[in-house]
Write a structure and sequence with these properties.
By secondary structure, this protein is α/β, with parallel strands linked by helices. The chain has helices at residues 3-9, 11-43, 47-95, 99-102, 107-123, 126-149, 151-198, 200-205, 209-261, 266-304, 372-379, 402-406, 423-428, 435-444, 448-453, 471-484, 501-513, 555-569; strands spanning 333-343, 346-357, 361-365, 387-392, 395-396, 409-413, 489-493, 517-521, 535-540, 543-548. It has three domains: 3-307, ABC transporter transmembrane region fold, CATH 1.20.1560; 323-408 and 490-499 and 508-570, Rossmann fold; 419-487, P-loop containing nucleotide triphosphate hydrolases (Rossmann fold). The strands form two sheets. A six-stranded mixed β-sheet has the order 6-7-8-3-9-10, with helices on both faces. A four-stranded antiparallel β-sheet has the order 2-1-4-5, with no helix packed on it.
Length: 570
């Protein structure tokens, strides 16, 4: 997405902003004419002539006062609109990434983009753009006027402006690179700070606060050092332009004095001097502003790059469309044929062949690191870069639209995320369901007692991430989410592992009693409950086997749980 598309979205605000910048340039030129006229009157003063032209001076004074008001007003309106649009585009770009693309960076990186990078963009976009418009217009008019007054003088100043231009080009690439590095450093700092604060309990329990204070200080120093280098580069460019501007000013002054001493008209010479200085001053400001503007476009490209999901396709996935075009309709079975997955060229599992039947319950089992979560991510379309073929009733899983698929599946994780919002919105996830359907989901998920104890019922607002609910209540909200959307498949990843055994047993039994197809990962064994699974998908030694539950030795799980308990007590 080009930066132009953002400004085009706010055409009225941009036109007013543009007009305000032009008005400043016009008033600057008008003041040059007034000053020249004033000097002309001083050469041969006449009271009558001064009185006749007094209204011009008064009008200019009034317009200068108005220009500041309107330019400031139009500028603020444009800044507000563009910042709002940029934040919307940036957040939309983040939220619409595929799971795989999103997980390449941490949430702290994205927060840094939304806060720090937009601040960097603002500093180097709005003021430089205004200066480029007003200075560019002023420079053009000054050049045209000088061609009329003295074309040789105008040509010399044009050559000097070209020198200014090439001088600014020397700083363009380093400035853009440093600006991007400042942005990257801000991201790294945000991630480091978040990790430190997330581990604050461990830091305090082990009395290592000073170590991490020192570490954070060093990180801050590195970030500020990079900013210092960027600002130093801008300052070096500014000082360089000041030196060139001083040399040019000496030339302009000498040339105009020469013209005046050769019986030149004072008003005309004054006008030449002011237009010449105008070209010099605008060149002095416009080219550094161009450098800053281009650095801002780099930040913009970083913020909104990849807004089109098609640009995020991995090269590993050839001739396959992650976006999909077909709706998800699960009537009979999901077939997995010759499935293989590699993680950083390391084989996780290979040549897997099995089927998932509609309405059946599947327990994924295997040692840690065998690839259980990877398999669940593949089946849930969270990961797409596998090899082999997966079909839903003979339709390639890659060809199914992600939105259609997600609308008909439910996820239940070990750590349930809840919004700081009402219980109702946390269950419905901001979709509109009728009251009957909501109440049915609440009843099926075992949330009736919780709702009854709340003063505002389903409209009770939860604390941050639902920390005012117990672990079991949080899981029941998660189950209600799956029930209310009529999830055809429920993926449960260690849904009961953080609950006490009795509560975990209840939740597991409730999951198995649902009509939906259930694909679960669990290390827990609940006697008389775990056996209700129809099949066990065993992931072990880079192989995947489908075993009917009546043929699976569940005492293996029981023995593992017993060993874990003994180790814990020990």
């Amino acid at each position: 997405m080009k930066l132009r598309s953002l400004t085009n979205r706010y055409k009225i605000e941009f036109v007013l902003f543009f007009g305000g910048a032009l008005f400043i340039a016009i008033m600057s030129l008008a003041m040059k004419l007034v000053m020249a006229e004033t000097l002309g009157l001083m050469q041969d003063p006449s009271l009558e002539e001064i009185k006749s032209k007094a209204w011009i001076f008064i009008l200019c004074a009034i317009l200068i006062g108005l220009q500041n008001f309107f330019h400031h007003r139009f500028r603020l309106s444009f800044i507000r609109s563009v910042k709002l649009g940029l934040k919307q585009d940036c957040f939309s770009n983040i939220i619409n990434k595929s799971f795989r693309e999103f997980n390449k960076k941490s949430k702290e990186n994205y927060i840094s983009n939304l806060v720090n990078d937009i601040d960097l963009f603002e500093k180097d976009f709005f003021y430089p753009l205004s200066e480029i418009i007003s200075s560019g217009f002023s420079n053009l008019i000054s050049f045209i006027a000088l061609i009329y007054l003295d074309w040789k003088f105008a040509l010399i100043l044009l050559i000097l402006s070209t020198v200014f231009f090439f001088f600014s080009k020397m700083f363009e690439k380093p400035s853009k690179n440093l600006k991007k590095k400042v942005s990257d450093d801000n991201e790294e700092f945000s991630v480091s700070l978040s990790n430190t604060l997330n581990g604050i309990e461990i830091l305090k329990l082990n009395s290592v606060e000073k170590t991490f204070c020192d570490k954070t200080t060093e990180t801050v120093k590195a970030v500020e050092h990079r900013k210092l280098k960027y600002n130093f580069l801008l300052e070096l460019q500014t000082k360089g332009f000041q030196f060139l501007s001083a040399l040019t000013t000496v030339f302009i002054l000498a040339y105009c004095m020469f013209k005046l001493f050769n019986l030149g008209d004072l008003a005309t010479t004054a006008l030449m001097f002011q237009f010449g200085m105008g070209m010099t001053q605008t060149a002095r400001y416009i080219f550094p502003c161009l450098t800053r503007y281009k650095a801002a476009t780099e930040i913009y490209d970083k913020l909104v790059a990849g807004g089109n999901t098609a640009e995020l396709l991995d090269n590993e996935i050839s001739n396959e469309n992650i976006l999909g075009t077909k709706d998800f309709n699960f009537e009979n079975k999901i077939s997995v044929k010759d499935l293989a997955f590699y993680y950083d060229e390391k084989l996780v599992f290979n040549n897997a062949n099995f089927e998932i039947e509609k309405g059946k319950k599947y327990l994924i089992r295997g040692p840690s690191g065998a690839g259980k979560t990877t398999l669940m991510n593949i089946l849930s379309k969270t990961m797409e870069n596998y090899k082999g073929f997966i079909s839903v009733d003979n339709i390639d899983l890659h060809d199914i639209k992600l939105s259609s698929f997600n609308n008909k599946i439910g996820f239940i994780f070990q750590n349930v995320f809840l919004f700081e919002d009402s219980i109702k919105n946390n269950i419905e996830l901001y979709h509109d369901y009728d009251e009957t359907k909501l109440n049915s989901a609440i009843k099926s998920a075992g949330l009736e007692e919780l709702i009854k104890t709340q003063k505002d019922g389903v409209d009770t607002v939860l604390a941050e991430n639902g920390k005012d609910l117990s672990g079991g209540q949080r899981q029941r909200v998660s189950i209600a989410r799956a029930i209310i959307k009529d999830a055809e498949i429920i993926f449960a990843d260690e849904a009961t592992s953080s609950l006490d055994p009795e509560l975990g047993r209840q939740i597991e039994d409730e999951l198995l009693s649902l009509d939906s197809t259930l694909i679960a990962i669990s290390h827990r064994y609940y006697e008389g409950i775990t056996e209700k699974y129809d099949y066990v998908i065993q992931v072990k030694d880079k192989e995947i086997d489908l075993i009917p539950s009546n043929e699976y030795n569940f005492t293996l799980i029981q023995n593992e749980n017993s060993s874990n308990k003994e180790e814990t007590h020990a």
